[in-house]
Known about the structure:
Layout: H1 12-21, H2 37-48, H3 51-64, H4 68-92, H5 98-106, H6 109-144, H7 157-171, H8 178-196, E1 199-200, E2 203-204, H9 209-224, H10 226-252, H11 267-272, H12 275-282, H13 284-288, H14 298-327, H15 338-344, H16 349-383, H17 402-413, H18 421-449, H19 467-482, H20 484-492, H21 503-530, H22 534-548, H23 552-576, H24 578-585
Antiparallel strand pairs: 1-2
Helix pairs in contact: 2-10, 2-14, 2-16, 3-12, 3-16, 4-12, 4-14, 4-18, 4-22, 5-6, 5-18, 6-9, 6-16, 6-17, 6-18, 6-23, 7-8, 9-16, 9-17, 10-14, 10-16, 12-18, 15-16, 16-17, 18-22, 18-23, 19-20, 21-22
Amino acid sequence: MSYKNLFRKKTIESITEQIEKGPFEGEHLPMNKVLTVRDLTALGIAAIIGAGIFSTVGRACFDGGPGVIFLFIITAIACGFSALCYAEFASRIPVSGSAYTYSYAAFGELIAWIIGWDLIMEYAIGNITVAISWSSNLSSFLNNIGIHIPEFLSRSFFEIKNGSAHYLELLTKSNPTSDDIKVLSDLKPLHDLWLNAPHIGSTPFIINIPALLITALITAVVYIGIRESRTSSNLMVAFKLMVIVLIIIIGFFYVNPANWTPFMPNHFSGVMKGVSAVFFAYIGFDAISTTAEECKNPQRDLPRGMFYSLIICTVLYILVALVLTGMENYTKLDVGDFLARAFNDRGLNWLGGCIAISAVIATTSVLLVFQLGQPRIWMSMSRDGLLPKRFGKIHHKYKTPAFATIIAGLLVGIPSLFLDSDLVTDLTSIGTLFAFVLVCGGILVIPRQLKNDSGRFRMPYINGKYIVPMLFFGTLFIIYIYFPDFMHDFFTLKNRDNPDLSTMEIFQARIPYFIFFILCVLITLFSYLRNYSLIPVLGLTSCFYLMTELGTLNWLRFLIWLIIGLVIYFGFSYKNSKLNHRKSKV
């Protein structure tokens, strides 16, 4: 095995030629080109506005207070830099595959496999969270109209198990705080369900049937075709946008400005605690790029769809966060139905009902877009020989990657029966950020290696030779002058907020930050030596910084996932790669 073979690249010309001739010998079934810029924007909104506004934003507001809007702005800026890089790649390489295909051209096969394996986590595992959230929203809506699904058939096994264990842990605590008492109250129903659910032997029988059923339904829609998926997405987006605009307009009249003071009650660290929840809501624009082969004019419409959806969703998220924290004190927002409760408390039960219905529809649209994206990435990997040939087969009638779509449905539906959504949310966020980092890094490499100006979108080039070093040393200077204690504690491994932590515990918690600091030093050096473009540099560093906020444990889980992927690559994909066969024939 040659070291160079691990980084063998595909040219842009070979990628597009493969699509024109057909991925497999004797077979050329083009996908239906039906998507317009309006459809792409709707798909982006469908994925971005869903689990975020109706499920995870309440917790982010609880942690950060009204100041959580800064987190939305920071995340939108980081995504904006990444979107520019995605847009240029999509314009140059208008084929399915998203970051996987882009990395194959920029970095070579090994990195492409890593990002492809990472995208499995982003889409498939992320959709497990959405399916569980959909089940919760459906149960809440049905309860409001007098229909009750037994909880042991609508909750996930590990969610109840972990909640019960946490309840018992807090119950035995010698000096519980007021927060502990509140958490105990919230966890008691989970503990009771764990005890009272039907048992098979000594194990409680708890499965999430609605999560499985909605995954099966969405998989069927995606299997049938892109037209049906597009129509379903557009209708759901139109409905939930109307409800969100209604929430903002009516909620504005119930805002109490006193609830906005203090604006950042838990300081900047509290604002950043919501990174996982907020960023999870923003990953939708990535899914747009997987539909490149089904766009009427991908080089023009893909960049527009990304930008339009990102801008619209950021504005809506900020407005909803301001209205929500203005209506209710941020301390009351750590509940599942935070939006509906805010309006029900003011006698607007009809709007609470609309919100409940919209939450179900919104999470359905997220499921649709993610289930649309995952099979198309597998299809691209199969075309290159990195996955078995069946993953790349196009259905003769429906013109969709049929086998890959079914497998994607099983990969989401079965785990959603029992997994805890908290685990998979964090994994999805770190996986997505890693994909964004590689896409931004790929733009730094591609312009110097692949001279192809046929794309209609070209990201503005701003020479970072002097700007990046100025930003790096300027930031260090500001921290040294205005936050000297922070810099001292960071490098001497101290934690004033929690002095009981050992030096080793502090070091382990700061490993991601040390890696980020080393990355910034290297990026600064290479920007000076190689005149790196400023925008992808800012995208790469901002996304990597958000990765550091997800904690060492999630980094470890992510590393284990990548190691499993590497075992598969060296066991199957390396020797079956089409580039490997092409070289052996030569």
